[in-house]
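name: query_chain
kind: protein
chains: 1
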Amino acid sequence: MTRLNPHKRIAGLLVPVFALRHAKDFGVGDTLAMKEAIQFCAQQGFALLQFLPIHETVGDHSPYNAISSRALSPAFVALTEQDVPGLSAEMIRTAAPESWLEKLRESTVRHNSVFPLKIHILLAAHHVFRAGEASDEELAEYSQFQRDNASWLPAYSLFRVLIREYEGNPNWTEWRPEHQSLSGANAWLARHPDRARIDHAREGFEFIQWVAWRQWRAVKAYAEENGVFLMGEMSFGVGRCSVDVWAQPELFDLEWNVGSAPIGTQDANKDSERWGQNWGLPAYRWENHRSSNFEWLRGRIASEKQFFHACRVDHLRGYFRAYMFPWPGGAKHAEFAKYTEEEVKQRTGGRVPRYVPGPDGDAAGAKMNELQGREIISVIQREAGDMHLVAEILGEPADYMKRTLEALSLANLTFPHFDRRADRSLPPIESLRKLSLVAFANHDQAPLAAQYLGMITRAKKDPEGNAAVDLKNLLELVGWTEAAPDTLNEALLEALMRTLFRTPCHLAVVMSSDLLGIAQRFNLPGSYGADTWCERLELPLSEYVRHPVYAKRVHAVARLIAECGRATNSPETKRDVILLTETALAGDR
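structure:
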């Protein structure tokens, strides 16, 4: 397998799959849009395309609250006759008239329309596929896929059919008692008088997973043909209403919900200010994972490795120690955000958010955290093999976390304008860790245009305040000597991009919003509901190259990538796609 060379500096583009567009999409980005994005990256000099988790969601459309750690999202499947066995143009016209598709493409992702539509069409294709339209080669490949994924696919398909039986409700704790566990559901199925119908429906969902697997494998092959690395992401947890928790409840602690303590460097909604972000994800029972030699975790990593050359490891802090809440996320967390500690204790039997194994401020707790984190992260790293890992750690990591990153030669994320010293000054870019991914923003943060506008607005209101100091330091960091503009203009945007690409960090990634210099934001941490995770680019990426406003910005970034030696076609970067020995990888921290 080709592997990222951490000794070479390259540039990357970050854009969520759902945000991408192409002329014939169904109101959400898909694997065909991914191929067009790969082509765009290759043409503009980006050697890496980064995106968010691609696993299936139901109800809550956050990619970090999937119903399966392994199942791929049907929403991202491209619906073309060439890409979906059994599918015909007539089936698409009948289920999705062009007039409706035009409405779906108009603005943001309409989850509650797009997702059911795609599943309906894919299940119809499965019916034709099984009715004798499939080739012998396709049938053999499908059967092999089922055998290769027997460790999770049968449980997933049964769980998915039960969601359908309960009219789209994935909360298995609200199902009938015989359906609230895998063993109970299997016993129910064994005596069901209409088992043939249920088995056919199960196979339909397994067919969808096969189609998604084929398409994402093709995306990876296309990326390799074009010299572009794919960087996906493994979310820290899975949803409480997931097949993983339903089928293997012994691996999770349903009494506690994982989140993060308040982080000063990250903006979030008001509900997160007092107690932090409550993601509503079940905590892990690591002692039970350990007794199975981390089989479930290793399976997750092996699955991601099929589709990615690199992987962002979400919330690395959580593998050292988890911040847990004794109340659920979502609306319940919004309620608890109003309570004092004493009021919280009255409602929880004395329990408050806590760190497990322990707080970093306690020496014994910190030691336990370090031992646990090193053990779990080492498992992840060994299973990842040639897949390059980048750890997400927001805020200042504890010393033992820094030691672990160095000891394991693990790359990390860094934001040069957030890594402030005690006096709010910024370290010079030359001091940034080489083995890291540097960016000014990602999907959880406001893009540069919004960051800058907020900063200068606050600075004008209080010329002696922190915002004014931060603005001055940011402009000095990028070598800006003129008066601060009222908004992020093209000259300042170019100065920021130049600074980013000049850092010693081996990965310098630009979010699509910052490439275009717009304020489009993909997520506000702590938010929830139907209007989240739905922002889309206004145009397909290829059209921005010719746009009267944005073309200049795109071309400027491409030029800077080349000038700073990060371009895919530069002699230096062409050697990035090489096979590295473990010795070579460990040589540069």
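note: The first helix runs from residue 31 to 44.
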